[in-house]
């Protein structure tokens, strides 16, 4: 279908954080039918500030006449409260791509990212200033105010110990892994047919096959004949390996929190099927 003027997003990559969304975004913009926004993460619908839809649309390409489509990729959208309703009010026919990763490995990757961010004075100052504008995002107070950055276990246990008493949204490494709950929130507004769910391991190991599945979902030509750069993006070096015992303890927690996920998204996840001792 032809579009005249400013393009509006037809689909979104919802998440999850550290699930491969940056790589997927870069793969998709190589397709001749897809035009990317000015930047990957627009953080429009997860903002606590008043929404200005005209400003939002300025992030997308302007074409006099085109049959191309555009999109955005903001992994926080699947996690932040009230985003699903905001998007529904904007476009009840929006399509969504959700990349799901082993939630323990996702949590550890996020912790490692935040730790490395703490090595940058610029990032610390950003989080400090942002806390004044967005008081529910307290990265500075919880992670960077003290001289020593919390260990992965300390950060995870803080969330687990205070799960019923949170008055903030960020930082989170545990709650972001409650995929079933987050998807259910979106299904209060959108039909399941609006979603394409992808296992992050498939995106990494069977990239072209996943991209062709996405092409079918978006009703565009496949990626087979394209000269593609399929290198994974934004891969960070870990400062230390993930402790196996901690992995098992958290995996059991996430398996319980995500009961019914496989049936809902029609995928089989290795991490949901890993046998974990109930005595860990």
UniProtKB/TrEMBL annotation:
Pfam families referenced in this protein's UniProt entry, alphabetically: Sulfotransfer_1
Single GO term (MF): sulfotransferase activity
Record's signal peptide: none
Keyword Glycoprotein assigned: yes
Membrane-spanning segments: none
InterPro entries: NST/OST, P-loop_NTPase, Sulfotransferase_dom
Record's keyword annotation contains Transferase: yes
Swiss-Prot/TrEMBL keywords: Glycoprotein, Transferase
Occurrences of domain Sulfotransferase (ranges): 9-221
Name of the protein: Sulfotransferase domain-containing protein
Species assigned in the record: Winogradskyella sediminis
């Amino acid at each position: 279908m032809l579009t005249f003027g400013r393009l509006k997003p037809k689909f979104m990559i919802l998440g999850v954080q550290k699930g491969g969304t940056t790589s997927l975004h870069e793969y998709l913009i190589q397709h001749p039918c897809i035009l990317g926004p000015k930047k990957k993460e627009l953080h429009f619908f997860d903002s606590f500030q008043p929404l200005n839809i005209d400003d939002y649309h300025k992030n997308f390409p302007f074409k006099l006449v085109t049959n191309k489509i555009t999109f955005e990729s903001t992994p926080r959208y699947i996690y932040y409260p009230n985003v699903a309703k905001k998007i529904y009010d904007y476009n009840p026919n929006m399509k969504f791509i959700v990349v799901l990763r082993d939630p323990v490995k996702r949590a550890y990757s996020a912790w490692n990212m935040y730790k490395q961010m703490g090595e940058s004075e610029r990032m610390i100052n950003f989080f400090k200033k942002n806390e004044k504008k967005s008081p529910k995002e307290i990265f500075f107070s919880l992670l960077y105010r003290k001289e020593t950055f919390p260990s992965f276990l300390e950060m995870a246990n803080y969330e687990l110990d205070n799960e019923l008493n949170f008055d903030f949204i960020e930082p989170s490494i545990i709650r972001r892994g409650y995929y079933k709950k987050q998807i259910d929130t979106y299904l209060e507004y959108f039909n399941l047919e609006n979603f394409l769910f992808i296992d992050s391991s498939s995106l990494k190991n069977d990239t072209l096959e996943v991209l062709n599945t996405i092409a079918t979902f978006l009703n565009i030509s496949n990626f087979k004949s394209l000269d593609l750069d399929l290198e994974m993006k934004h891969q960070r070096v870990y400062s230390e390996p993930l402790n196996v015992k901690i992995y098992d303890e958290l995996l059991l927690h996430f398996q319980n929190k995500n009961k019914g996920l496989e049936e809902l998204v029609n995928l089989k996840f290795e991490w949901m099927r890993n046998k974990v001792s109930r005595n860990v």
